Amino acid sequence: MQSCGNDYVYVTEFGNEPGRLAQLARFCSDRHRGIGSDGLILICSSRKCDIRMRVFNPDGSEAEMCGNALRSAASLARMKGIVCKDTVTVETAGGEKSVRILSLDGGYCRAICDLGVPEVFTTFDEPICVRGRQFEIAVLSFGNPHIAAFTAGIDRLNIKKYGPPLEKSGYFPNGANVHFYSAPQGGEIRARSWERGCGETLSCATGAAAVFAAARARGICGLRAYVRHPGGTLLAESDENGRVFITGETRLVYEGELLPENIV
Hints:
Layout: E1 2-3, E2 6-7, E3 9-12, H1 21-29, E4 40-44, E5 51-56, E6 62-63, H2 67-79, E7 87-92, E8 95-105, E9 108-116, E10 120-123, E11 128-130, E12 133-141, E13 145-150, H3 159-167, E14 177-185, E15 188-195, E16 199-201, H4 205-217, E17 224-229, E18 232-238, E19 244-251
Parallel strand pairs: 3-4, 5-7, 13-14, 15-17
Antiparallel strand pairs: 1-2, 4-5, 5-6, 7-8, 8-9, 9-19, 10-12, 11-12, 12-13, 14-15, 15-16, 17-18, 18-19
C-alpha cells in the first residue's frame, strides 16, 4: 500500500507473530532483492483497540508510529472486513490512535487520523547551525520523535547533508525524524522528510503534523493547511486545543504471498 508515495508492505497476522522480524523487514524493504518498500507493517490483534500496528524500518529497527501507515492499516482492516465499522482504533507503540474512513472504493481509501496533541513540543528562539547552514527548529512528538526545521529553498536542499546530523542531534535519545519546511505559499506548506532508519521518503504524515504544528507556533498558518511533500499533499487541521488531524488518501497497490524460504 502507498500513501503519497510513502509505501509499505502490510502483513495481516492474527496468530503468533512471525519471528526474525528485523530480517523480514530488511528483506521486504529491499527494492532489488526483496519486495521494495519504506518498511514493513504488521497488523495484529489487540486487547485494547480494534487492531494493533507494528512499524519496522528498512534497517530492521522498530518505530513507534507512522501516520501514513496508520491510515493505511486502518483502511486495509476495513477493506478486508477485519473491522466492520468506519472508525477504527489502533494500538501503536506510540499510543492509541483512531482513524475515520471517509470514503472507500475498492483499493482506494480516503481517511482522517487523529494524532492528538503533541506529547513534546519545544520551539527555539535562536536558529541552530548545522554544517554551515542555519535552521529554525521545533522539537515535538506525536508518539514518534520529530524535528521540524524551517528554512528557505527546500527544493534545492541537500537533505542527505543536513538530515543525518539533525536526526542524531540528541534532542531524542533514539534519534528523530527530520522535516524541512518553508513558509506557506498559496495555502500550502512545502516539506521534505528524512526518516530514521530509512532516509528521505516521498511523504510522512506525522511529519506533516509536525511541520504544521511548528508553523502554527511560528504564526505563519492558521487552523488548517495543506502540507505538500514531493509524493503528494496531506490536509492538516487543528482544533483550538492543539489536537492535530491529518487527512489523505491511501491505495492498495497489490497483494501477494511471501515465500519464507526466499527470505535472505
